Amino acid sequence: MEKLKSYLTLIILMFISVNLSAQIKQDFFIEALGASTTFGIHYDSRFSENTNWGGRIGLAYTNSKSDDFFDDNPQKTTGITIPVAVNYLIGKNKHFAEVGTGISFGWYKCTYRTQRFEMERDVNANFVFLDLGYRYQPTKGLLIRAGVNPSFALDLYKDSHKEHGAQRAAVIYPYIGIGYSF
């Protein structure tokens, strides 16, 4: 797990440093729902000056009281996720359709309650997602994103007693984002 965190940190720093030195379209935005699950802040950039291909990386906070987030039914799930994605913008001027795919690496704390006890367990789970939406993005200024985000669990997590899967197969979250393009 520590190696994964180190690799992700290195990828984030390289992605941002390479793009900040170039004269390409870059964005920062906050996102509600979608790949962020609850709330997140993201950096997005085109891969070069003359392409509609780009990528994003974010840091998000998850807070769910749904008992179907994981299949062992915790009453509450909180956590930190790192969504990483590639995307393509279709359109011109300021109006684009956005199509993308990515993976969200997550570290969660699940809370279980019985009549007499409350237990917590740390869980790691990864989710694959799609971004399908609309993006208003001028050359500089206000950025607005909205759409849907289908996602599904990529792996299973294990504890010492039995194996549990993350239950986000066939889940579709809406998303909305607002930020600044520079």
Looking at this protein, list some descriptive labels.
182 residues, mainly beta, 8-stranded antiparallel β-barrel, two-stranded antiparallel sheet, 1 helix, 10 strands, 11% helix, elongated
Short recap of the structure:
By secondary structure, the protein is mostly beta strands.
In whole angstroms, the N-to-C terminal distance is 35 Å
What is the average of the pLDDT values? 82
Number of strands: 10
Which structural class do you get from the secondary structure elements? mainly beta
- Give the low-confidence spans: 157-163
Helix fraction bin: 10-25%
User: What is Rg?
Assistant: 18 Å
**Widest beta sheet: strand line-up:** 1-2-3-4-5-6-7-10
Count of separate DSSP helical elements: 1
- Please write the string of helix (H) and strand (E) elements: HEEEEEEEEEE
Oligomer: single chain
Shape, per Cα inertia axes? elongated
Largest sheet: 8 strands, antiparallel, barrel
- Bin the strand percentage: over 45%
Describe this structure in words.
- The chain is mostly beta strands and 182 residues long.
- The chain has 1 helix and 10 strands.
- The strands form 2 sheets. An 8-stranded antiparallel beta barrel has the order 1-2-3-4-5-6-7-10.
- A hairpin with a 6-residue loop joins strand 2 (39-46) and strand 3 (53-64).
- The longest helix has 20 residues, at 2-21.
- Mean pLDDT is 82; it is low at 157-163.
